[in-house]
């Protein structure tokens, strides 16, 4: 029951759904997600924490930066099915399409420069 509640809680927020959709193309750094979302890094990190606790994203640390991706074949079935449902349900959404266009611009930026700017270093 706890896993189900964690997944439903994670899916009950527009920003977390936008993050899931942004990860469709592969792994993204938290700095890139922060730039895309236009939110404070702490807010994006909190959303990612909720998604991670629910098993809806994978996390990987490289140096000082955190990278997130959608769960793979080894993830629990409930998490994979939830992500698949979100992707199907939001495939034609205008906000998701706008985010996809903006994400292309963000991914074209130098990630090390972007992350240093986000962290103030």
Task: Please provide a written account of the structure.
It is a single chain. The protein has 121 residues and is mainly alpha-helical. The protein has a single domain, classed as Winged helix-like DNA-binding domain superfamily/Winged helix DNA-binding domain (Arc Repressor Mutant, subunit A), CATH 1.10.10.10. Helix content is 64%, strand content 10%. It has 7 helices and 3 strands. Strands 1-3-2 form a 3-stranded antiparallel sheet. A hairpin with a 2-residue loop joins strand 2 (58-62) and strand 3. Helix 1 (2-11) packs antiparallel against helix 4, helix 2 packs across helix 4 (41-53) and helix 3 packs across helix 6 (94-108). The longest helix is centred in the C-terminal third of the chain and has 15 residues, at 94-108.
- Overall geometry: globular
Secondary-structure element order, N to C:
HHEHHEEHHH
Q: Can you tell me the CATH architecture?
A: Orthogonal Bundle
Distance between the termini: 43 Å
CATH T-level fold name:
Arc Repressor Mutant, subunit A
Mean pLDDT over the residues = 93
Helix vs. strand class:
mainly alpha
Stretches where pLDDT falls below 50 for ≥5 residues?
Answer: none
Overall domain count: 1
How many helices? The count is 7
User: Approximately how much helix is present in the residues?
Assistant: 55-70%
Radius of gyration: 14 Å
Major beta-sheet overview: 3 strands, antiparallel
CATH level 4 superfamily: Winged helix-like DNA-binding domain superfamily/Winged helix DNA-binding domain
* CATH secondary-structure class: Mainly Alpha
How many strands in all? 3
How big a fraction of the residues is strand? 5-15%
Order of strands in the sheet with the most strands?
1-3-2
């Amino acid at each position: 029951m706890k896993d189900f509640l964690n997944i439903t809680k994670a899916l009950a927020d527009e920003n977390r759904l936008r993050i899931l959709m942004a990860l469709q193309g592969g792994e993204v750094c938290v700095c890139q997600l922060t730039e895309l979302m236009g939110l404070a890094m702490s807010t994006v990190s909190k959303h990612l924490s909720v998604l991670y606790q629910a098993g809806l994203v994978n996390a990987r640390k490289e140096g000082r930066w955190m990278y997130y991706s959608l769960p793979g074949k080894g993830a629990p079935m409930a998490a994979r099915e939830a992500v698949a449902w979100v992707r199907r349900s939001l495939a034609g959404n205008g906000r998701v399409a706008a985010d996809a266009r903006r994400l292309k611009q963000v991914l074209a930026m130098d990630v090390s420069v972007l992350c240093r700017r986000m962290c103030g270093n």
